[in-house]
Design goal:
single chain; 380 residues; alpha/beta; Rossmann fold; 2 domains; seven-stranded parallel β-sheet; five-stranded parallel β-sheet; 12 strands; 16% strand
């Protein structure tokens, strides 16, 4: 499958959403997991660029204001909840926020954007079902077939639909995100999460890879600070921007600002630079692109490390997470993507890596070889 097909797939799958003139978009990822920011920016790219929807109000969990949202919206404007992998009890604060919004706004249409569903405790699933089914107009989009079937069972009073991840709304923007980054080196990156969703890679497999790291935002310690305290958030922002970027990595700082300047001419992404949320998200995505593009290939147990690699044309192997999320998503949407492979427990990572390297995918930002040049090389 060609990645250029994904914006169309997303439009078709999200048809039940309609095309609201205005909406609220809640649960902004006010943390440094680059994957969640890919989802957020992909969502805005789809809403504003494809549907023409005006996002009148957005917030994180910590800075949500019911009064502020109601003042910004008209009586028929829906609430949209950010997608991802947090529908369930693995990440309790995110689930609690969704339930709070659904219970608190019974007169508004609410849409949960594409999610993976995973409950470990049946009591938590029953509580969520009671809240969700009590809402008169709740729609859920699920990212894989198992989540979709489980949601249909748990939430019979809701609209339940299958749809790909919102980050795939950026499939048409790969050249934009690849601009200004240096070329690939000879190394393979193991992009490896170290949280409750991680699985241990066999030592022999891990040693065959050149570089092992998590997202650069975690490696550089950008998690510090209490996001709930505005003054602390401001100080942490200054620390990240001036010390961790401008002084510690001056070349990257200048390159990112040059990219921001170019981005201002983009019809949708340029508008995001005008808001704190948008600028923070785009900056993190730029960092993620720079990290991945420095390598010839990526092996990752982070779903969005793999998705971003695919979008950028980097040969990539996806490993599973703790509860099968990555495998389920790959089976639903990525099985036929050139330069992409999934390896489950006991699989051969090195063989999969050789296969994606042999696939010959074109990196974003690199021109296709001239047809006459290819033919002359073939004759030789």
């Amino acid at each position: 499958m060609n990645l250029a097909d994904y914006p169309r797939l997303l439009r078709d799958a999200l048809a039940p959403l309609g095309a609201p003139a205005r909406c609220a978009l809640l649960n902004y990822p006010d943390h440094v997991n680059i994957g969640d920011h890919l989802i957020w920016v992909g969502t805005l790219r789809f809403l504003v660029g494809e549907l023409g929807t005006e996002v009148r109000y957005s917030s994180s969990r910590e800075d949500f204001s019911a009064r502020g949202m109601e003042e910004a919206l008209g009586p028929d404007d829906p609430i949209l909840l950010h997608g991802g992998g947090n529908l369930g009890d693995l990440w309790p604060p995110m689930q609690a926020f969704m339930e709070r919004i659904i219970a608190g706004f019974p007169r508004r249409r609410i849409v949960i954007l594409p999610q993976t569903l995973h409950f470990q405790n049946p009591d938590n699933a029953r509580r969520a079902a009671a809240v969700f089914n009590a809402h008169p107009d709740l729609t859920l989009f699920l990212r894989d077939h198992r989540s979709h079937e489980e949601a249909r069972r748990l939430f019979p009073c809701c609209g339940v639909h299958l749809a790909p991840d919102m980050a795939l709304g950026l499939a048409g923007e790969a050249e934009v995100f690849a601009a200004g980054h240096p070329g690939a080196g000879p190394t393979t990156l193991l992009l490896r999460r170290r949280d409750r969703e991680s699985l241990t890679l066999p030592a022999g497999e891990a040693s065959a890879l050149d570089v092992s790291a998590d997202w650069v935002s975690y490696e550089r310690g950008w998690r510090m600070g209490d996001r709930r305290v505005p003054f602390s958030r401001t100080l942490i922002g200054w620390y990240r921007e001036w010390w961790q970027r401008r002084l510690a990595f001056p070349e990257e700082y200048r390159a990112r600002n040059a990219w921001f300047a170019e981005l201002r001419g983009h019809r949708v992404l340029g508008l995001m630079l005008e808001s704190r949320h948008g600028r923070f998200s785009l900056g993190l995505i730029w960092d993620g692109c720079r990290q991945l593009l420095a390598h010839r290939a990526v092996v990752s147990n982070r779903l969005h490390g793999h998705l971003l690699s695919c979008l950028l044309g980097i040969p990539s192997v996806l490993l599973d997470n703790s509860y099968g999320k990555n495998r389920l998503f790959h089976e639903a949407w990525l099985r036929d993507v050139r330069g992409s492979r999934f390896v489950g427990a006991g699989g051969d990572v090195r063989a999969a890596l050789e296969a994606v390297l042999a696939a010959g995918v074109r990196r974003a930002g690199q021109a296709e070889p001239d047809v006459r040049d290819r033919h002359s090389r073939a004759r030789r």
